[in-house]
Please model this.
Amino acid sequence: AQSVTQLDSQVPVFEEAPVELRCNYSSSVSVYLFWYVQYPNQGLQLLLKYLSGSTLVKGINGFEAEFNKSQTSFHLRKPSVHISDTAEYFCAVSEGTGNNRKLIWGLGTSLAVNP
Amino acid sequence: GAGVSQTPSNKVTEKGKYVELRCDPISGHTALYWYRQSLGQGPEFLIYFQGTGAADDSGLPNDRFFAVRPEGSVSTLKIQRTERGDSAVYLCASSLYPGVGELFFGEGSRLTVL
Model:
């Protein structure tokens, strides 16, 4: 069965610094990859996704992620973070076929942006 | 509606009581999911509806948990004989294209079992 590992549970960073949140998954067979963000006291929302095509995916709020099939990774990056990026970030992998795909989630990475 | 709506936002109950949590998905979304999220954890899949039927209920932890979606829109998650271990945030999500996994989440219902 598919599993998702987010290598850092907490990432503290200063404002305007670059950040990378790491995500690895266990199988590269027919998977779709996602990053979701959960701001304090809000629901989860999609940040970006990889379905096919270019391995570099751009999302909302200046985030991007790169799909690396050989390393089974999908790391999230932002060149310069803001205080407002403070949130919980979840990597997820969609496995299965057709309408029976379901998401397997990592445990999350808490990004804390400090002034 | 504009987004996924979940009620109640907070529910405190006593061990052994019955609880219902409601989800109103985005209009037109045929796929509806229930997840459970405990502190410090990622969402844990419970059940997935495609239309009115449960396409996958493999995540329901035991027979105290049940969910319905009788008209293919609003869904209710029902928990009987609640236990303290059921305390969590219950998330509902809907999707227009379930095959590609893009989900729109509600803000969740926080259940506390005393």
Q: What stands out?
A: The mean pLDDT of chain A is 91. The CA atoms of residues 95 and 101 of chain A lie 5 Å apart.
